[in-house]
Design brief:
With 399 residues, the chain is α+β, with helices and mostly antiparallel strands. It folds into 4 domains: 54 residues, no CATH class; 104 residues, Orthogonal Bundle (DNA polymerase, domain 1), CATH 1.10.150.130; 181 residues, hpI Integrase, Chain A (Orthogonal Bundle); 31 residues. Helices cover 50% and strands 14% of the residues. The strands form 4 sheets. The protein has a 3-stranded antiparallel sheet, covered by helices on one side. β1 and β2 form a beta hairpin. The chain is extended, with a radius of gyration of 30 Å.
């Protein structure tokens, strides 16, 4: 890697000297080069070239700064997302950015204006998606557009930190508004009916623990028997890891908050787990040395290996549709757990801890709604207090 020095004829007719150094190739095989020109003498260009070569040898210069939006995103994924985010999150970010790249990938970073970006997001909202069968354009949801904007905003923030931009142009954009839809929550009877419909299947103990703890899907699929204390009262479960499904395969990672939490288990869930443990021991004996005893998983395939999270979700949704409960999913049971506890007066910090939220504020925002029965009860309580007071005032006025 020596670099080259050469003449350049400017439109004005003046001759200057330039240098070029090839530093390698990008992930697509395209050469990466550092170029600089405008030198009046060949010796000046040689000196600057040698200076850059020394910096390269010392690791002070890696490559030229990204010029286009596509270059910036590539740099942001390499220097930020892949270092600070989980693989599954990075995959989702790449999927979102793919919507924007065909439209503004070739635009120079410095030319990314609020107007250009706002036009992009409006275009994506109107016709950014496509029908899977006909490939015809279709609108993207406002939520998806805002998710795309969120990733782009993070990359542009990085560009500001890297001194490629002075301000983030997306800060001035008006994004599509998302219509807030309350998550579905089951009441106690619906929850019990849904779980009981899976009795006799491997889903039964899983759904009991899911509904009784509000744990995330991956947290339960990474659960091991050593995480449980079932033979003492009260029984507990420790949640410290989660199973993630990525294109590269299954991966065990820390929980979303990276903080373990210990939860008490109700007697119904304990009984379901004890029965499940006995059945699993029979399966272990049947498979013998072929059983994955090293994983020690609570919920697993017959041979003791990890269950695929997406397959578990699909199975639960299938059960819900057969029961005439479309829209009910694993997340519905988690959401119902929080709603039911708050409905019974369990303090918000306790519910927040059980759900593994990063803060009580997150729990308060998610559960700002109330179940239908709670809404009716609120009206009755108000009527009993204020309504009684009104009646008392009227009676006093008659006297």
């Amino acid at each position: 890697m020596d670099g080259t020095v050469y003449k350049q004829l400017l439109p004005s007719g003046r001759i200057v000297w330039r240098f070029e150094i090839t530093t390698g190739k990008d992930e697509n095989g395209k050469p990466l080069r550092i170029r600089k020109g405008g030198f009046a003498r060949k010796g000046d260009a040689e000196d600057e070239k040698n200076k850059v070569l020394r910096q390269l040898a010392q690791g002070q210069v890696v490559k030229a700064a990204p010029k286009t939006f596509a270059d910036l995103m590539q740099e942001w994924f390499r220097e930020h997302a892949e270092r600070h985010c989980q693989p599954k999150t990075v995959e989702r970010y790449r999927e979102l950015v793919a919507y924007a790249l065909p439209h503004i990938g070739a635009v120079q970073v410095g030319a990314l204006s609020p107007l250009l970006l706002e036009r992009l997001f409006n275009q994506l909202k109107d016709s950014g998606g496509h029908n899977r069968k006909t490939k015809a354009p279709r609108p993207l949801s406002a939520k998806t557009v805002r998710n795309i904007a969120s990733v782009v905003h993070s990359a542009l923030d990085a560009a500001v930190r890297w001194r490629l931009l002075t301000v983030n142009p997306l800060d001035a954009c008006d994004l599509p508004k998302v219509r807030k839809v309350e998550a579905k929550a089951l009441d106690q009877d619906q929850t019990a009916w849904f779980i009981d419909a899976t009795r006799g299947t491997w889903l039964y103990p899983y759904l009991w623990v899911d509904a009784a703890t509000g744990c995330r899907r991956g947290e339960l699929l990474a659960l091991t028997w050593s995480d449980l204390t079932l033979d003492s009262a009260p029984a507990f479960v420790t949640i410290s890891k989660s199973l993630s499904q990525t294109r590269a395969g299954l991966q065990v990672k820390p929980t979303k908050t990276e903080q373990p939490r210990t939860l008490s288990l109700p007697a119904t869930a304990v009984q379901a787990l004890r029965e499940h443990r006995e059945q699993q021991q029979d399966t272990r004996r049947m498979f013998g040395p072929d059983y994955r005893a090293d994983l020690d998983l609570v919920f697993c395939t017959p041979e003791g290996d990890y269950l695929k999270p997406d397959s578990v979700t699909a199975k639960v949704c299938l059960v819900a549709r057969k029961l005439g409960m479309p829209g009910v999913s694993l997340h519905t049971l988690r959401h119902s757990h929080g709603s039911q506890l708050l409905s019974k007066g369990v303090p918000l910090p306790t519910v927040s801890k059980r759900l593994g939220h990063s803060s009580v504020r997150v729990t308060a925002e998610v559960y700002s709604h109330a179940l239908a029965a709670d809404e009716i009860a609120a009206a009755d309580i108000w009527d009993q207090s204020v309504g009684a007071a009104v009646t008392k005032v009227r009676e006093q006025a008659k006297q």
